[in-house]
Amino acid sequence: MINNLIIKDARQRMDKTIDAFRIEISKIRTGKATTALLDGVKVDYYGTMSPLNQVGSVSVLDVHTISITPWDKSMVPIIDKAILTSDLGLNPISDGTNLKIPIPPLTEERRKELVKLVKRFGEESKVALRNVRRDANDHLKKMEKDKKLTEDELKEAEKETQKLTDEHIATIDEMIKHKEKDILEV
Fold it and tell me: What integer best gives the mean pLDDT of the chain?
């Protein structure tokens, strides 16, 4: 039925909102080394802006150190500069063939700021989910007005849309709680 297509579309849009939120919070530093910290860093690889993980091996050495081994050793200074200018607040150390990036521990004040940031991103994502719900309900109401749905079908579809929204909001709340725990863990 047509209302199933609207709900399916709403589910896909809500899933994309969750994915975008997951990507956004993965970029937030927790004081622990993770390769995801460098996902947004791009380097000029022979005239093409390329993600860091496509010009070398990026790995975690220990809880506080990331290692980068470029495929081409001449890329070391370029990668170094890209990380320094990336506003991540990281300072790579080069030995000429590899880069090591020490991850400084977070201060208590910075941890609290990051938790607020995660919560803000979470709230923005919840607003996006509610907007998807509103769009779906508007389509459903228009279909009922155009006599493509009965009143009972409309109520059932709206209930399904609300259930979908509640599930996705619960997922975001769980992700916020998990990230907050990661950030506050010393």
Answer: 89
